[in-house]
Amino acid sequence: MKRTATAIWTGSGKEGKGTLTTPSGTLNNTQYSFTSRFENGTGTNPEELIAAAHAGCFTMALSFMLGGAGYEPKKIDTTATLTLEQKDNSWTITQIHLDVNAKVSEIDPTTFNNIANNAKINCPVSRLFNTAVTMNAKLI
Fold first, then answer.
1. Spatial CA neighbour of 44 closest among 28, 26, 32
2. pLDDT by residue (tens digit) across 109-119?
């Protein structure tokens, strides 16, 4: 299975601008720029999209793993917070933290945390990163 996305950039790194497009149309000439990446400008940025991908991947993996263990997830709400900082004079993703709140029928906190940690380690997006992935998971 392969997935694609296209980025088009015009101009210099700081003054230029770009768009991102995916075949599904979810991103369709979606704007990104220096200001949307490193300041608070309008548009998206690669790190926001990575955080969204990680939140989505982890949440789906957790749902599958809970179901596979015989538990029915009623709701899983995940926020992925990506940290981008200067390291050795280069911008580096140094950490992604997952905040997870889940409503799951008839599961104890220890079992839930074990399954959540397994999902954190094994979701494909977590496995992509060469950085720390931390998590705070709780039942609601």
1. 32
2. 999 999 999 99
Q: Are residues 34 and 54 in the same domain?
A: no
pTM of this structure: 0.90
Task: Give me the CATH number covering residue 51.
Answer: 3.30.300.20
Dihedral, 139, 81, 55, 71 alpha carbons, nearest 10: -10
46: left (phi over 0), alpha (psi -120 to 50) or beta: alpha
69, two tokens: 């263990």
What is the number of other CB atoms lying within 10 angstroms of the CB of residue 72?
A: 12
Q: Is 83 helix (H, G, I), strand (E, B) or coil?
A: strand
Residue 89 lies in a domain: yes
Burial 104-132 (b: 16+ CB within 10 A, else e): beebeeeebbebbeebbeebebbeeeeee
Report how many domains make up the chain.
Answer: 2
**Which residue has tokens 């709400």?**
77
What is the domain range of residue 64?
46-139
Residue 1 lies in a domain: no
